[in-house]
Design a protein that fits this description.
The structure holds 2 protein chains of 2 kinds. In chain A, 45% of the residues are buried. By secondary structure, chain A is mainly alpha-helical. Chain A has one domain. In chain A, α2 packs antiparallel against α3, α5 packs across α6 and α6 packs parallel to α10. Chain A is built from 10 helices and no strands. Chain B is an alpha/beta fold. Chain B folds into 2 domains: 225 residues, 3-Layer(aba) Sandwich (Rossmann fold), CATH 3.40.50; 66 residues, Alpha-Beta Plaits (2-Layer Sandwich). Chain B is built from 12 helices and 14 strands. In chain B, a hairpin with a 2-residue loop joins β1 and β2. In chain B, α3 packs across α4, α8 packs across α11 and α9 runs antiparallel to α10. At the A-B interface, α1 and α4 of A face α2, β6, α3, α4 and α6 of B. The complex binds adenosine-5'-diphosphate and magnesium ion (MG).
């Protein structure tokens, strides 16, 4: 049977609905996430930041700071790997916003907007697909750490839990960058604003060095910085196998970010979409 | 009186303002169900903006439009179930292959996994893209991209299809293939609203045409109505021997009954052509008098002439910078 030669049902006789069900929204979002994964497969160079960066940063930081900060490399790894992990994965979440902006400027977005799908699906799909990137970055960081001699005391179960915590928090943060992506004029400006937010968050934290050698004012910021709590939580999980208050604080921080930025992003996105 | 289902599109007073540019400035359109409607205008006339408003992609600043009786703003999701949109700039995903695109859009249209695959294959076959199905779109020609774009618009078999400049930039062969495809679409009962910069394209495909200029509809009617408002085609002759000129002019006067225009070098004769059938008589008369021709051409009215007649000004870029643009035979407006 041929599509173009079969008769088309008239517009007046069709059964139509003006709203989208929750089930359809979920299905549409997964279809859009599937598209994100196909794109990655077609352009594997997109994965450079989640593959090479963890490798280079882990090796570089280990040998540059290892001796100075912890006396030797082996005793620096339990401090460093969680820090590098958090830093890499969070940096990766910036890409969500940049790619969203690029995508929204493309012709294919017009088709998404003209289809009877949930309005939110392209955004939800992009955020969903990016969790795969976070997973890759997380896995690679732990593997490189292991090769360098990192043996997390917490055991594999807690390492996986730590990885999941980082992925959840990165996903939460990606809402901030998605928001920039939706409101910015160009992809490069998204990158610019995002790094402006990102650098203080990741470097003014306990990710690479213990905070007790810092001046008081800096310690104050480092101690309230949610990234520090996330790093501490990952250290507790991976190195000690404990779930401490930092774990809950990190999750709380993630929840707050999502509660603020998800509605903002969705509102701005719907206005444009 | 027509009921609402007679009209695929009814728009009144559509306005879209970008900054201080009134891109669309009070457009009314009525497209009858089952017809092909052409929106004809030069670059920047507002064609794409009109389509985007009708296709729920852009909110009108004023005015009101319905698709099969459903309001494009308040019942947008219903309208989206009734339309297919093929944008001026390919609205397919450049990073994916043709199959992946069609499967994705099928999934988004609510088809299951297997159904989507079948639908994609069927459409690829239909549009002659099977051989290129797995290749990334980057290597696709303009024509292939357009075909894929159109295929993607047909997944849900929408009763109304918007085609924004479906053949701009295509070579003549691909262009006539696209015309055939559009004709087949219409024969299945689809309503088509297409935009174009080419008078002959609107002429070939559209039942009715709206001519649009700087955001306003300046004329509306059938192709014949439009053309007769512009004047008929003209006949151009070039003689082998310029000395035959006076005889040729006399023959034209007596056979066609019209006055002619002579080009400065006098080798070319231009005559307004009312009735194409009479040309045969003229050619017989010329042969009887042993007047040989090097060239015989029929020049159709160009978009430029349509514009000149309808708006009192030519198509801006052409009229200002290329005084001889009206001599291009196809009415193509330079971008
Ligand atoms: N998104 C936009 N922002 C600002 N101006 C626009 C936008 N889209 C179109 N325009 C302007 O509106 C006018 C009509 O454009 P358009 O509808 O694309 O014309 P056409 O499709 O007939 O070539 C042009 O002057 C164009 O520059
Ligand atoms: Mg256009």
């Amino acid at each position: 049977m041929s599509t173009i030669t079969s008769t088309i049902q008239s517009g007046a006789s069709r059964e139509l609905r003006n709203h989208v069900s929750v089930g359809q929204t979920v299905r549409n979002s997964f279809s859009m996430a599937y598209r994100g994964l196909l794109k990655v497969r077609r352009t594997p160079e997109q994965l450079i930041d989640v593959t090479l960066q963890p490798i280079i940063f882990t090796v570089m930081f280990t040998f540059i700071f290892g001796g100075a900060i912890a006396g030797n490399v082996a005793s620096y790894l339990p401090l460093l790997i969680p820090g590098i992990l958090v830093q890499t994965v969070i940096t990766t979440s910036v890409v969500t916003g940049v790619q969203l902006r690029e995508d929204m400027d493309k012709g294919v977005f017009d088709r998404f907007k003209s289809l009877p799908i949930a309005r939110i699906a392209p955004l939800a799909g992009a955020l969903l697909a990016d969790t795969v990137r976070y997973t890759i970055a997380t896995t690679i960081t732990f593997v490189v750490g292991f090769i360098l001699g990192y043996r997390p005391e917490g055991g594999i179960g807690f390492v996986v839990l730590a990885g999941l915590l980082v992925i959840v928090c990165a996903w939460a943060l990606s809402w901030i960058f998605a928001f920039f992506g939706v409101i910015a004029r160009s992809a490069s400006s998204v990158q610019g604003i995002s790094f402006l937010v990102l650098f203080p968050l990741t470097f003014l934290s306990n990710a690479f060095v213990p905070s007790d050698t810092m001046p008081d004012w800096l310690q104050w910021f480092v101690n309230i910085n949610p990234v520090s709590h996330l790093v501490s939580a990952v250290r507790d999980l991976a190195n000690l196998g404990t779930v401490g208050s930092d774990f809950w604080l990190a999750l709380l921080g993630a929840a707050v970010v999502v509660m603020i930025f998800a509605p903002l992003t969705v509102r701005a996105y719907m206005r444009k979409a | 009186m027509a009921t609402s289902s007679d009209w695929a599109v009814e728009a009144t007073g559509l306005v879209k303002i970008f900054g201080d540019n009134r891109a669309v400035d009070g457009v009314d359109l009525r497209v009858r169900t089952g017809s092909v409607y052409g929106v004809l205008g030069p670059n920047g006339a507002g064609k794409t903006t009109v389509i985007r408003m009708l296709a729920t992609l852009l909110r009108p600043d004023a005015g009101h439009a319905t698709v099969f009786g459903h309001d494009v703003q308040h019942e947008a999701q219903i309208v989206r179930q009734l339309i297919g949109v093929t944008g001026q700039y390919a609205s397919v995903d450049e990073t994916l292959s043709a199959t992946e695109n069609l499967v994705l859009f099928s999934r988004l249209n609510g088809l299951g996994r297997a159904e989507s695959r079948a639908k994609a294959n069927e459409l690829l076959e239909e549009f002659g893209l099977t051989a290129a199905a797995k290749r990334p779109l980057k290597n696709f020609s303009g024509g292939m991209r357009r075909r894929l774009d159109l295929a993607a618009s047909l997944i849900s078999q929408p009763p109304l299809i918007f085609l924004d400049e479906p053949t701009t930039g295509l070579d003549p062969r691909t262009r006539s293939q696209m015309w055939d495809t559009i004709r087949r679409l219409v024969s299945t009962g689809s309503t088509v609203l297409l935009t174009t910069q080419y008078l002959d394209e609107a002429d070939q495909l559209a039942d009715r045409i709206a001519v649009i200029d700087t955001g306003r509809v300046v004329a509306e009617g059938t192709a014949d109505e439009l053309k007769s408002s512009v004047g008929k085609s003209s006949l151009q002759l070039r003689l082998v021997n310029p000395a035959d000129r006076d005889d040729a002019v006399r023959a034209i006067r007596s056979v066609l009954g019209v006055d002619v225009t002579l080009s400065p070098e006098a080798a070319r004769i231009t005559a307004p052509m009312q009735d194409p059938d009479r040309i045969t008589d003229l050619l017989v008369a010329l042969r009887e008098q042993n007047i040989s021709l090097t060239e015989l051409a029929v020049q159709k009215p160009t978009l430029d002439e349509v514009f000149l007649t309808l708006t009192g000004h030519g198509v801006e870029t052409d009229a200002a910078t290329q005084p001889d643009a009206s001599e291009t035979p196809k009415g193509r407006v330079n971008a």
